[in-house]
Amino acid sequence: MAKKSAANGAKAFKYERNRETPFKFGAHVGMSGGISNAVLNAMDIGANSFALFLKSPRKWVSPDIKDEEAEKFKSLCQTYGYNTRTDILPHGSYFINLANPDKEKEEKAFGSFLDDLKRCEKLDIGLYNFHPGSRLDGDHDEALARLAKNINRAIKETKFVKIVIENMAGHGNLIGSDLQDIKKVIDMVEDKSRVGVCIDTCHSFAAGYDVSTEEGFTKFWKLFEETIGWNYLSAIHLNDSKAPLGDNRDLHQKLGYGFLGLEPFLIIANNKKLQNIPVVLETPVQGDDSVYGEEIKLLEWLQGRSLDDPLFLAKKDELAKLGEKERAEQSKKSQAKASKKSKVSKKRQAGNILEATIIKKIK
After folding, report:
1. What is the Cα–Cα distance from 35 to 43, expressed in whole angstroms?
2. Which one of the listed residues 71, 94, 139, 318 is annotated catalytic?
3. The predicted structure's pLDDT at residue 349
4. pTM across the whole model
5. Counting beta carbons within 10 angstroms of the beta carbon of residue 145, is it exposed (0 to 12), middle (13 to 18) or buried (19 or more)?
6. Which of 49, 52, 273, 333 sits a CA distance of 20 to 30 A from 62?
7. Which residues of 28-44 are buried (b: 16+ CB within 10 A; e: fewer)?
8. What is the pLDDT of residues 61-88, one digit of tens each?
9. Which of the residues 44, 106, 115, 166 is marked catalytic?
10. Does 247 qualify as catalytic in the annotation?
11. Kind plus residue range of the DSSP H or E element containing 319
12. Are the beta carbons of 153 and 188 closer than 8 angstroms?
């Protein structure tokens, strides 16, 4: 799998990139030491697309990208055959919440958001992915309207970058776990050519959409087409899930190790509708991105195989066994959470009955 050497003194990369496939399998790579290094890191894992942070995700303000670094980034993309408008999917800071009901915090988030978009355009990057945010203690529909308003503002202050909304896992007051949320936001965006959607497989599963089987996968995408429309699909985040279906926990897992299993990833690797858009891995790594190289090769290996292929079934069982212990641990946590929730619900219900009885007696 790994490429051991390079001819003519060219830089050697760990994994050989497959440019024959129409699928843009890639991963989120680091940009330590300069944003141009992200291109080399992508080549090192054999990626046909890649994601990156445009600045530190832990800070509100970061130094501007220097002109020479931006030119180096674009030059390396050209050298190694990455189309900056279609193959690169930067990820926005987790701090950004354009739906925040607090006006001052909303403006701070918008400033960071707009800064990211301008960094994209300086690098000639055509896509920008971000989390839609949280309503916090505010009204849900008002939060969606605020989000759309800020997307419209950002579009007017930039030239070409497409703003890509990611679906969420449904935790707390986060918006975007229901496909209807994303539809409502898009409906309010004035220039619809500048907005798209990124579907995260883990988030979808955590939100209650069962994409772990061929039947469930087909049902989800039919719903996506009917609710939002295929023309808005701009990228995929490819992650298995450590948490069970509908658990609303955003816990990414290596492909085949989690509750999704390997089946949906074989389906994705053979779905022509998912060709030519970034399909980006965000599975767990421990300081070594070469794990992504292995998973990209796994996705390429899945191409052309069927669900009843004996080699696929053996690989599916092998990976499931490796994740068995962690699935069991997460199942216990999920059951404990459900039990606690049930007790709180019963207590609240009993309180409501008591209150109704007292009121009845008073009357």
Report:
1. 14
2. 94
3. 65
4. 0.90
5. middle
6. 49
7. bbebeeebbbbbebbbb
8. 889 999 999 999 999 999 999 999 999 9
9. 166
10. no
11. helix 310-322
12. no
